[in-house]
Amino acid sequence: MSEDSVIRRPVLAAHTRYRWDKLRDQHQLVFPEGMIVLNDSAAAIVQLCDGRSTDELIAALVAKLKDPVPASELSDDVQGCLRHLVERGLLRDDAE
Amino acid sequence: MTTPNRPLALLAELTYRCPLQCPYCSNPLELGRYRQELDTETWIRVLGEAAELGVVQLHFSGGEPLVRRDILDLVREARRLELYSNMSTGATVVDGGTLDRLREAGLDHLQVSLLDTDPDSNDRLAGTRSFDRKRDAVRGAKERGFPVTLNVVLHRQNLDRIEDVIRIALEWNVDRLELAHTQYTGWAFRNRAALMPTRAQFEHAEAVVERARAGEAARLDILHVLPDYYQDFPKACLQGWGNVFMNVAPDGAVLPCQTAREITGLEFPNVRDHSLREIWTEAPVFQRFRGTDWLPEPCRSCDRREVDFGGCRCQAFLMTGDAGATDPVCHLSPHHHLVGEALREAERSDPPLRYRVMSA
After folding, report:
1. Predicted structure pTM score
2. What is the value of ipTM here, to two decimals?
3. Of the residues A43, B102, B161, B240, which has the maximum number of CB atoms within 10 A of its CB?
4. How close, in Å, is residue A28 to chain B by CA atoms?
């Protein structure tokens, strides 16, 4: 996948599951024989990867902010996070 | 005593009963000694204790976990506890109805074993007709949206069909393909001379896998576990003894590794007598090789000591008689000559396979 490819409709891969680990105070994305620990922003993104479009996902993120910013300011960071997860095989783009 | 990490994974071996007789099974050789299986209530308690202890991944295995009549109850409980559940199955006793019920109960992932891509060879290695059932189960699982890993244990007798393994994984539409070279403990150690591939076979297969990854199988997530007899350094077996992994055997014994019963002189506590937490934090067997303080030379002063923790304890014991020795597959091990001897013996002999049987 190229640096500037855009993900339009992110969906978690069937074998991955998001969970909050209350013992470790961690957001986790778990898959067969492994997991990654997510920071707060990645966790917020991952929990919205349910078949809605990336634009809708970003709008939902903005709506959660105490001090809202224009959606365009989040776009690069969100795409970066989504691309990383797609490269790891943990997310797919349903628009493809 | 330092406080250990929280364990991440529990291997729940529900039973040693199995319709297959794979000659590289990781179950103990004296299978008949462990017929007293835990009941449903105890397993439910154990799963709860595992979740409280911090376990994230739960692997239902065996034997064949699907021969347990309470399997759906256990899967449901795992789901309720928010554990990520995987099931390793031979998939010979599963039909569409079972798959529907497993999905409904909340099983996250299915791992199906295939012994060979040639149906006759698969059935011969399994000791029973099973190829068609495995194929139907994988296809049925995929139709139901199950994520499936196809697991193929590699050895001399199937390694030359590595191209077919990849082709079948694509045809059957699995999500992941685990290509795991045989680990020579348990039954596999007894069948080592019949299963060990030649270097030429292994190198050819490795090249095929690398080509496929870059080409036609790019969409497949391929996990390739290399044969450690041909590596310079040992595996980081379970990321260290008593570090992240524990195994509850069918009789309730708690093991730091599913083949740890190979090591004579160790005592394994039982969930019938103790909680998982007590066992994990206090049992001498979990502390025996935990961390790096116990390491012998040349590991103790090696800069890879936090990378591989001295390798596999069971392999060290089986090859040298000392579970506290450096894993002999390491080229720095004083016992490394044993690896060369085993490889030479395998090259010049072709003994018959000894199949896994459940005799007393």
Report:
1. 0.95
2. 0.89
3. B102
4. 9
